[in-house]
Amino acid sequence: MLCSAAGEKSALLWSMRSYTLIRKLEGHQNSVVSCDFSPDSALLVTASYDACVIMWDPYTGEQLRTLRHDPLHSALDYGTDIHASSLRSVCFSPEGLYLATVADDRLLRIWALELRTPVAFAPMTNGLCCVYFPHGGFIATGTRDGHVQFWTAPRVLSSLKHLCRKALRTFLTTYQVLALPIPKKMKEFLTYRTF
């Protein structure tokens, strides 16, 4: 699959086998500007000017979680400027346990997937994009004035449970997982309905 975000309120999922549209992911209230698949391709995140990150199951089109990118009023005061926390970029960490986001509120945020609040912040100006180092531990951010900044990111040792899920989801779709003769709680975990 390929996901495209073209500045509309939706993201488009495309089949790379048939080069056709699979589905339109709708749920944002403003332009979708960034998207990224998890390392096992079982999740897709989209970021929008509506200050939300939506986590999707790309196989079913189901919205699994919404992360609200609220400005930190103690650090910055934007008054009534609703565009102050417009998102610019989102990316998954290499192990698939964290997300990084960049927004117009001048902060890089790092989110743990199982939480709905950021676990780390870093101040930045004119943020435009972010990407994790392929082996983890670092995030690079690009700015609108052409600079690149590097940040230390949390390093984690993935649990055996997560490594098993990641290995299975690398080659099983959501529908294939749901068809397995395993307990419901296990299916929910393997399809990221629970963490």
UniProtKB/TrEMBL annotation:
Matching SUPFAM superfamilies, A to Z?
Answer: SOCS box-like, WD40 repeat-like
The UniProt entry, under CDD domains, shows: SOCS_WSB_SWIP
Q: In which pathway does it act?
A: Protein modification; protein ubiquitination
WD repeat extents = 25-66, 80-114
**Which keywords describe this protein according to UniProt?**
Ubl conjugation pathway, WD repeat
Q: List residues of the SOCS box domain.
A: 159-195
Superkingdom of the organism of origin: Eukaryota
Q: Does the keyword Glycoprotein apply?
A: no
User: Any one Gene Ontology biological process term?
Assistant: intracellular signal transduction
| Name listed for the protein in its UniProt record | WD repeat and SOCS box-containing protein 2 isoform X3
**Which species is this record about?**
Alligator sinensis (Chinese alligator)
